[in-house]
Design a protein that fits this description.
This protein is mainly alpha-helical and about 120 residues long. The chain has a single domain, classed as Winged helix-like DNA-binding domain superfamily/Winged helix DNA-binding domain (Arc Repressor Mutant, subunit A), CATH 1.10.10.10. The protein is about 40% helix and about 10% strand. The protein has five helices and three strands. A three-stranded antiparallel β-sheet has the order 2-1-3. The longest helix has 14 residues. The chain is elongated and about 65 Å long.
Length: about 120
């Protein structure tokens, strides 16, 4: 009697193969919340499949973390691939908005009072 075939649960291609052994890129690391989008340029036909999948997923704005989830790859791997695509002009990145230290409480009170007086 033959045993049922066990389904593979790990990726067939290791992450270091996908990135060609690179752990970083030529540009500063992309934070996970960075929004990325396809630039509209047509990628070359010999582009690695993972790159093509990223361009396909990024037809709208997605975060680096979302792209990683769609690909099923660690965010660090996707950061390297995205950096390549940005360098090649196939992806456009929008950096995350900086966190404001602290809002001016006096200004916020004035705005609140102004809104309350209009109601």
């Amino acid at each position: 009697m033959t045993e049922p075939r066990e389904e593979r649960t790990t990726a067939a291609v290791r992450p270091y193969v996908i990135t060609r052994g690179r752990a970083g890129s030529s540009r500063a690391e992309l934070p996970w919340e960075t929004l990325v989008m396809a630039s509209g340029s047509v990628p070359p036909p010999d582009l690695q499949p993972e790159y093509r999948r990223i361009v396909d997923f990024c037809q709208g704005l997605l975060s680096v973390a979302e792209v990683a989830a769609h690909l099923g790859q660690p965010p660090t791997v996707v950061q390297v691939l995205l950096a390549d695509l940005i360098d090649w002009g196939h992806i456009v990145a929008r950096p995350p908005v900086r966190v404001v230290e602290r809002a001016d409480m006096d200004l916020l009170r004035k705005v609140l009072h102004g809104l309350e007086s209009k109601l």
